[in-house]
Amino acid sequence: MDRVIMIKYGELTTKKGNRKFFVNTLYSNIKNKLKNLNVNIHKDISRMYIEFNDQELEEVLGIINNIFGIHEYVVAYKIASDVENIKEKVLAIMKTLSFKTFKIETKRSDKRFPIPSLDFSRQLGGLILKNIDGIKVDVHNPDILLNVEIREYYTYIYTNEYCGLGGYPNGTLGKGMLMLSGGIDSPVSGYLTLKRGVRLDCIYFEAIPHTSIEARNKVIALTKKLAQYTDSINLHVVPFTEIQEAIYREIEEDYCITIMRRMMYRITERLAKKNKCTIIANGESIGQVASQTLTSMAVINEVTNMPVIRPVACLDKLEIIDIAKKIDTYDISILPFEDCCTVFVPKHPVINPRLDLCIEYEKRFDYASMIDKAINETNTLVITDEKDKTFEDVL
Ligand code: ATP
Ligand code: MG
Fold first, then answer.
1. Which residues contact 59 (CB under 8 A, 6 or more apart)?
2. How far is the CA of 158 from the centre of ligand 2 (A)?
3. Is there a common fold for 3-163 and 175-394?
4. Are strands 154-158 and 70-80 parallel, antiparallel or unpaired?
5. CA–CA separation, 339 and 325 (whole Å)
6. What tens digit of pLDDT does each residue of 294-312 get?
7. Ligand nearest 219 Cα, by number?
8. How many whole angstroms separate alpha carbon 37 and alpha carbon 25?
9. Which superfamily does CATH assign the domain made up of 175-394 to?
C-alpha cells in the first residue's frame, strides 16, 4: 500500500471552535461509509488519510465522492520523509507519466527537513530534466504539476487534486423534517439541506385510494437516493385521505389547495417536534404554482412558527432539474404516479388567498381531531442507503 487518499479539510466551518467537532464527525461518517472495505483511516489537524487496497480504489472514490464535508482530496504516493527516498520516488513517478512541460511544487510543513522548499523543487526539477528527454519546465501552465508535501514522518506526492461534494459533514447541524412528495423539487431540496450538514426525517402525505402504492414506492425510492448522503432516513407516511376528502367536501374549490397545505404544515410541525427536528424543509419555489406566490406562502406558513427552509425557492425549474439529474432523482420523479396534490387540482386555485377566509373556512370541520388521528396512524419506515436494492426493486 504505497498510495493514500489525502483529504484536505478546507473551510469546514467558519467558527474556529467547531472545527474539531466537524472534523470528528466527518471522520466517523467516512469510517461508517467505508466500513465494508479494507481501509485504514487516520486524521491530524489539517488532513485525513485513507489507506486502501489498490483494487478497491475506484469503489472507495465512488463513496468519497458522495460524502458531504469533503471539499478537496488527492490520491498521493506516501513515502518516508527522506531526501534520497523522495528523489527516487519523484523520478519514478514522472517516468510513468507522459508530458512535455512540468512544474514541481514542494511544501515543507516539517521544518526539520533539511532542504528549503524552493531549493528542493529546483533539485527535483534538475533531476527530472537530466533523466527524461524532450521535456522542459513551465511554471505558468505546465502539463504536469507534481506536488511534494513533506510532513513530519511521511511525504505525499501527487499530481491531480479532485473536488469533493463540499458542504458540511452530515449531522453537524441538527435535524430537519423534509416534506417529500414524488415531484422533482422536494428531493432536490432534501439534497441541498443535507449538504448543509442537516440530517433529515421525511414526511409524505398519501391519500389512498386516490393515490397509489406506486406513488408511495416512488417516494421510498427517492428517500433511498437521499439516504446515500446520510445513513438512514425515517420516512413518515401520513394517511391524509380523510382530511383531504373533508376539505373537498367542505371548502370552496379555489381555497382547497391553500387549506390542504395549511393542514400539511400543521401535521409536519407536530411530527417534526415529535422527532426532534428543529426546522421544516420543502420544495416550494417562488411563483411555480398558485400555492407558491408570496401571498400564498405567507398564508400557508401562518400555521407554524417553526423555521421553514426552502432551498429551491429562488431557483428556476431548469436549474432544479439540473440538480435532480446530477443526484439521480430525476428519472424517479418523472414516473407518472399521481400525488395527493395532483389528484384534486382545482381549476382556478386562489393566487392571493386571504388569511381571514382560511380561518373562517377551517371552522367548517373538526380538523384538529382528524390531524390527531392522522398522526396516530402515521407509519414510519426506516430507509437505509443499502446498495442491494435498486429503486426498481421497491417499485
Ligand atoms: P415537487 O415540488 O416535489 O416537485 P410538486 O411540485 O408536485 O412536487 P408542489 O405541489 O409544488 O409539489 O408542493 C410544494 C412542496 O410541498 C413540495 O415540494 C413538497 O415539499 C411539499 N409537498 C407537496 N405534496 C406533498 C406530499 N404529498 N407529501 C409531502 N410533501 C408534499
Ligand atoms: Mg414544486
1. 37
2. 44
3. no
4. antiparallel
5. 21
6. 999 999 999 999 999 999 9
7. 1
8. 19
9. HUPs (3.40.50.620)
User: Taking the model in full, what pTM does it have?
Assistant: 0.92
What contacts 281, CB < 8 A, 6 or more positions away?
176, 177, 178, 179, 189, 190, 193, 198, 200, 308, 309, 310, 311
Nearest residue (CA) to ligand 1, atom 20? 282
Q: Which residues pair with 72 in a beta bridge?
A: 8, 163
Is the confidence at residue 395, as pLDDT, over 80?
no
CATH class of the structural domain 3-163: alpha beta
**pLDDT for res 152:** 86
Determine the pLDDT at residue 14: 60
Q: Where are the domains of the chain?
A: 3-163, 175-394
**Which ligand 1 atom minimizes the distance to the CA of 340?**
27
pLDDT at 387: 66
3-state helix, strand, coil in the chain (%, to 5): 40, 20, 35
Cell numbers describing residue 4: 493514500
Residue 368's pLDDT is what? 98
Index of the ligand 1 atom closest to the CA of residue 184: 4
Please give the share of the chain, as a percent, with pLDDT higher than 70.
95
pLDDT tens figures, 53-97: 999 999 999 999 999 999 999 999 999 999 999 999 999 999 999
- Residue holding cell 404516479? 337
- Locate cell 414526511: which residue? 203
The pocket around ligand 1, CB under 6 angstroms, is made up of 179-181, 183-186, 203-205, 282-284, 288-289, 339-341
